[in-house]
Specification:
This protein is an alpha/beta fold. The chain folds into 2 domains: 218 residues, Rossmann fold; 110 residues, Alpha-Beta Plaits (2-Layer Sandwich), CATH 3.30.70. 38% of the residues lie in helices and 25% in strands. It is built from 12 helices and 15 strands. The chain has a 6-stranded mixed beta sheet, sandwiched between helices. It has a 5-stranded antiparallel beta sheet with strand order 14-11-13-12-15. Strands 2-1-4-5 form a 4-stranded antiparallel beta sheet, covered by helices on one side. A hairpin with a 5-residue loop joins strand 12 and strand 13. The longest helix is centred in the middle third of the chain and has 18 residues. It is elongated and about 80 Å long. It binds adenosine-5'-triphosphate. The site of adenosine-5'-triphosphate has 13 residues, from helix 1. Adenosine-5'-triphosphate binds next to helix 1. It holds the Pfam family ABC_tran. It comes from Streptomyces mimosae. GO terms for molecular function: ATP binding; ATP hydrolysis activity. Belongs to the ABC transporter superfamily.
């Protein structure tokens, strides 16, 4: 059974279309929902939980209608919101016990579950101190614990790695993987960083401007978005070897993407592209410093979305938003 299904889901605010005819079908397991800021991820989660009405279309979670059965959904689903929502003068233990009781657990069971869950997310002695003094990483763990404490069938995690340093991100991603592998709970996790979702999720859904861009298994996604990174030397005949190679590849119909670090990236559409690059480098008399298979960054996924137009302002608006976001993950610039 699908854990989440939407059909033609649309959400219009007075000035913005946050979701635009979104149709997705998410199966049990860990699914990554990736999109730039403003792509519509939080809006989707709020509609799924029955916290905001859709303008058009339908949504269901665990087979329950989001519009009519929000309360039942929220009893069976855990939700980790994106923003800081923790009362500063309350301890993690008091807060999570309170949330467990709100979910319907008796007080004794709530205390036991809270102790187990806080231990699971890696909060020990600190759990008795007021949360106002917690680091971002500790706060994110408390937010995760309150989403898990009532033993949900599904958790919706909105940007759980936001504000964390690389080590904190890795720890959080490890915890997310274990939610499914240790407890069998399905996970929908959002991020604007494709890389971290690739490592965590079995399935990836990409949205932009409230529209579906891609929905596929992570393995096929990574395969479909494989790219080749090339770096060449300059020569007397070609003082800018990178530009010369780009021009030569363009002549034989190979599209390239360049980065400020003199790397040329191109999509591996078929394995013959390796020979094409080698021949072009030899022909120009350049030295080949690097030719390695890499992966596309999110900016490139947005830029190559081709058949799918942007919502609320057209395709250009969508690319611009993705472009802003891309500063986080890539400095790629498309040259066609
Ligand atoms: N209550 C609201 N009223 C008006 N516009 C809204 C409201 N909530 C969201 N929006 C707009 O809808 C669009 C989608 O926002 P949403 O928060 O769902 O995106 P997101 O992908 O979660 O991004 P972020 O990670 O930045 O929150 C944005 O343009 C946002 O400004």
């Amino acid at each position: 059974m699908s854990v989440i299904e939407t059909n033609g889901l649309t959400k219009r605010y007075p000035r913005v279309t946050a979701l635009d005819g979104l149709t997705i079908d998410i199966q049990p397991g860990v699914t990554g929902l990736v999109g730039a800021n403003g792509a519509g991820k939080s809006t989707l989660i709020k509609i799924l939980l029955g916290l905001a009405p859709a303008t058009e279309g339908t949504a269901s979670v665990l087979g329950l209608d989001s519009a009519a059965e929000g309360e039942t959904i929220r009893a069976q689903v855990g939700y980790m919101p994106e923003h800081d929502c923790l009362p500063p003068d309350v301890s993690a233990t008091e807060f999570v016990v309170h949330m467990a009781c709100m979910s319907g657990l008796p007080r004794t069971a709530a205390r036991e579950r809270t102790a187990d869950t806080l231990r699971h997310v890696g909060l020990y002695e600190e759990r008795y101190r007021p949360m106002g003094g917690y680091s971002t990483g500790m706060k994110q763990r408390v937010k995760l614990a309150q989403a898990l404490v009532h033993d949900p069938k599904l958790v919706l995690l909105d940007e759980p790695t936001n504000g964390l340093d690389p080590a904190g991100r890795d720890e959080m991603l490890g915890l997310i993987r274990r939610i499914h592998s240790d407890f069998g709970i399905s996970v929908l996790v959002t991020s604007h960083l494709l890389r971290e979702l690739e490592r965590t999720s079995e399935h990836i859904v990409v949205i932009d401007g409230g529209r579906l861009l891609r929905s596929q298994t992570t393995a096929s996604f990574v395969e479909a978005t494989a790219s080749l990174a090339i770096e060449v030397t300059d020569s007397d005949a070609h003082p800018d070897g990178t530009a010369a190679l780009r021009a030569a590849l363009a002549e034989v119909g190979v599209e390239t993407v360049t980065t400020p670090g003199r790397q040329i990236h191109l999509e591996i559409t078929d394995e013959g592209v390796y020979d094409t690059v080698r021949d072009a480098v030899v022909e120009l008399g350049l030295g080949l410093v690097r030719m390695e298979r890499g992966r596309h960054e999110i900016a490139e996924v947005f830029q190559s979305r081709g058949s799918v137009g942007g919502a609320g302002g057209g395709a250009d608006g969508g690319v611009d938003r993705a472009g802003d976001q891309a500063a986080d993950v890539s400095n790629a610039e498309v040259t066609r």
